[in-house]
């Protein structure tokens, strides 16, 4: 796109400063690090510091990538309505709680009787509680667990964040939501060709049988694995995430459970005070670092528990799995949902 497309009037009336972006000046932005990729969701987010993704400003119709303005955004605004239009089933109109649960060890954790009871409660509260799975599993694996655990009452959520944040899907149909998935897809282009030769034959790694196109996942033996490989891989634009001392995920830089959840919440237009997350391993850490209220269940891995002192708004439950989630919800003042 020509630089003259950057005229201020095209950017909306939000200008409160100026920043250099390549050769162009974009009113309305704070500082832009031109080496960092931007993510377009109808507006623009960009990475503006070393610590992670952050929203600085929506800029109307422009899609801004690393060092060039490359396209006019195809959608004028991103909203709940647009998100809903890409789902197969309606979301609750006015949820009183948005419950975001990891699966293994969390929503699938705890004694069967406690799980049964929690799933029954979730089903009864379907119009009051907007439920989001937030898991490392891919969509095929989520479908499998829904089928396997249906006899004890596990039901499809409203929304799914899968593949450790690399996939967003409708909970009912498990069909990916293009709005969320396409920007991640764009950032994953060419990654496998670059990374797979580096990973091939490495000791202590075995590929997980996945059906995702936006991530690589391995079983890892930490004793045998050469940890010096991680910075070499990350230099190619991925984040390496070790969790539960046995999983290694390679994700597009900046994409994780937390970043994708924040994007989803923005589209849902919900009050962050109504959101509670729950998890048990290091791949949930990004979710707990969002600052949203979160529950760490009692069976959490030690490496996650070690991080707790540095996290705010996180409750460590004394119960495991489902009972721990319920305990956390009461702690955060959602008792009325049991009335
Ligand atoms: Mg887990």
Produce a short descriptive summary.
The protein has 339 residues and is of the alpha/beta class.
Characteristics of this structure?
339 residues, alpha/beta, Rossmann fold, 2 domains, 7-stranded mixed sheet, 4-stranded antiparallel sheet, 18 strands, disordered N terminus, binds magnesium ion
What does this structure look like?
Helix content is 27%, strand content 23%. The chain has 339 residues and is an alpha/beta fold. It has 2 domains: 3-71, no CATH class; 95-339, HAD superfamily/HAD-like (Rossmann fold). Helix 3 (112-124) packs across helix 11 (321-331). The radius of gyration is 20 Å and the shape is globular. Bound molecules: magnesium ion (MG). The site of magnesium ion (MG) has 7 residues, from helix 2. Magnesium ion (MG) is lined by residues 102, 104-106, 279-281.
Give the spatial strand order of the biggest sheet: 11-10-9-8-16-17-18
Ligands, ions, cofactors: magnesium ion
**How large is the count of helical segments?**
11
Low-confidence stretches: 1-77
Helix amount: 25-40%
Let me know the number of strands: 18
User: How many domains, as an integer?
Assistant: 2
User: Major β-sheet, in short?
Assistant: 7 strands, mixed
Write the H/E string, N to C: EEEEEEEHEHHEHEEHHEEHEEHEHEHEH
In angstroms, what separates the terminal alpha carbons?
57 Å
Average predicted local confidence, pLDDT: 82
Shape: globular
Indicate the CATH class of the largest domain: Alpha Beta
What's the CATH topology name of the largest domain? Rossmann fold
CATH architecture of the largest domain: 3-Layer(aba) Sandwich
Structural class: alpha/beta
Cα-based radius of gyration, to the nearest Å:
20 Å
Which percent band covers the strand fraction?
A: 15-25%
């Amino acid at each position: 796109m020509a630089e003259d497309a950057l005229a201020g009037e095209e950017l909306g009336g939000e200008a409160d400063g100026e920043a250099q972006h390549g050769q162009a000046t974009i009113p309305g932005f704070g500082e832009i690090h031109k080496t960092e990729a931007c993510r377009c969701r109808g507006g623009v987010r960009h990475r503006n510091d070393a610590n992670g993704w952050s929203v600085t400003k929506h800029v109307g119709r422009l899609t801004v990538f690393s060092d060039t303005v490359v396209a006019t955004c195809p959608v004028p605004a991103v909203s709940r309505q647009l998100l809903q239009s890409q789902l197969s089933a309606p979301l609750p109109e006015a949820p009183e709680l948005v419950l975001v649960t990891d699966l293994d060890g969390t929503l699938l954790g705890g004694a069967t009787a406690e799980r049964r009871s929690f799933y029954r409660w979730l089903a009864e509260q379907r119009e009051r509680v907007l439920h989001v799975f937030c898991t490392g599993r891919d969509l095929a694996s989520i479908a499998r667990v829904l089928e396997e655990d249906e006899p004890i009452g596990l039901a499809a959520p409203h929304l799914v964040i899968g593949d450790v944040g690399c996939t967003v899907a409708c909970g009912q149909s498990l069909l990916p939501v293009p709005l969320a998935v396409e920007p991640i897809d764009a950032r994953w282009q060419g990654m496998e060709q670059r990374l797979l030769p580096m990973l091939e034959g490495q000791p202590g790694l075995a590929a997980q049988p996945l059906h995702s196109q936006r991530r690589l996942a391995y079983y890892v033996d930490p004793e045998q694995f050469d940890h010096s490989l991680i910075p070499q891989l990350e230099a190619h634009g991925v984040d390496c995430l070790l969790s539960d001392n046995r999983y290694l995920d390679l994700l597009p830089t900046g994409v994780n459970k937390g970043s994708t959840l924040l994007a989803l919440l923005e589209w849902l237009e919900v009050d962050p005070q109504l959101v509670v997350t729950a998890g048990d391993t290091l791949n949930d850490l990004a979710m707990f670092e969002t600052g949203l209220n979160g529950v760490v269940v009692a069976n959490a891995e030690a490496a996650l528990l070690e991080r707790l002192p540095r996290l705010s708004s996180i409750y460590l439950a004394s119960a495991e799995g489902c009972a721990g989630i319920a305990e956390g919800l009461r702690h955060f003042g959602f008792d009325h949902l049991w009335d």
